From TrEMBL:
EC number of this enzyme: 6.3.2.6
Keyword DNA-binding: no
GO molecular function annotations of the record: ATP binding; phosphoribosylaminoimidazolesuccinocarboxamide synthase activity
GO CC aspect terms: cytoplasm
Pathway this chain belongs to: Purine metabolism; IMP biosynthesis via de novo pathway; 5-amino-1-(5-phospho-D-ribosyl)imidazole-4-carboxamide from 5-amino-1-(5-phospho-D-ribosyl)imidazole-4-carboxylate: step 1/2
Organism: groundwater metagenome
GO biological process entries: 'de novo' IMP biosynthetic process
Transmembrane segments: none
Protein name: phosphoribosylaminoimidazolesuccinocarboxamide synthase
HAMAP family registered for this protein in UniProt: SAICAR_synth
Keywords for this protein: ATP-binding, Ligase, Nucleotide-binding, Purine biosynthesis
């Protein structure tokens, strides 16, 4: 299969197969706060690819929406590679939150971990250096979508999240929130990129949740590591969490501190978490 390298993202390397097809090569890179960590997680690329394929197969079988995914049968691509159709990418990211957690909790407070009576939709930019929250009007202006398109996307996401919630529930997991992306091909809106993985979505252990505990089974585990990793400002001598210092510098448009590598112990724990989540989500051995 001839291919041409196009670009590297935070997680994936993208290759052109022909005028209609691309190949995603999932790396072992990991990023938080829009920064790539200088550490690699051995199994991560394969885990993300296999979980993404699992969800795409389910969504297509249920006829929820058309997708970018191209099923290649068995063993035609490696376990960390995926064939996808070329699309015009809609420059938005769609986040749906079912529980009060993450950045939503940081912005709005309330009761951490509380289930919302109705899902909360948020939209952010995709191609800016840092993700930026948008109003619906801003999203329509940036994307050139019609309001009816946005409503259709919301409806699709809710149907997808029902599938994720039901599967997660069988596996003693709670699906807390997640991100979806869409593209356009031949005038139709398609689900693209990946979703339902520990990178894009947040999961909690259901039994621990009943006890009032929040066991993070996603990349949030890594975010929390950097929120509790303290950094001494070289100029003022004050002590900040790495995450807080990064965002202070970013807000002031000053140079950002380099993100430190993960400890060896964290690399091992994150690898175990990702491999374990493949098994918990899919019910299959990794």
């Amino acid at each position: 299969m001839s291919e041409k390298f196009l670009k590297s993202g935070k997680v994936k390397d993208i290759y052109e197969i022909n005028d209609n097809l691309l190949k995603f090569k999932f790396s072992n890179r990991i990023s938080v706060f829009d920064q790539i960590i200088p550490s690699e997680i051995t199994v991560k690329g394969e885990v993300l690819c296999r979980i993404a394929k699992f969800w795409f197969d389910r969504i297509e079988k249920k006829g929820i929406c058309k997708t970018q995914y191209v099923s290649d049968g068995k063993s035609k691509t490696k376990s960390d590679e995926m064939l996808v159709k070329k699309t015009e990418v809609i420059p938005l990211e769609f986040i749906v939150r079912h529980y009060n957690a993450g950045s939503y909790y940081k912005r709005h407070k309330g009761t951490y971990g509380e289930k919302f009576s109705e899902p909360i939709f948020e939209i952010t930019t995709k191609f800016e250096k840092y993700d930026r929250l948008l109003t619906e009007e801003e999203a329509l202006e940036i994307s050139k979508l019609k309001k009816i398109d946005l409503e259709n996307i919301k409806e699709i996401i809710l149907k997808i999240d029902d599938v994720i919630k039901n599967q997660a529930g069988k596996r003693n997991l709670i699906h807390v929130d997640g991100k979806k992306e869409f593209g356009i091909l031949d005038g139709e809106i398609l689900l693209i990129d990946t979703f339902g993985t520990p990178d894009e979505d947040r999961f909690w252990d259901a039994e621990e949740y009943k006890k009032g505990n929040f066991v993070e089974l996603s990349k949030e585990f890594v975010r929390q590591y950097y929120e509790n990793l303290f950094y001494v400002c070289p100029k003022c001598g004050e002590k900040f969490s790495y995450r807080d210092f990064l965002y202070v510098q970013r807000e002031k448009k000053l140079s950002e501190p380099l993100i430190p590598p993960l400890s060896d112990e964290m690399i091992r724990k994150v690898g175990e978490l990702y491999g374990g989540m493949y098994e918990r989500i899919t019910g299959k051995k990794f």
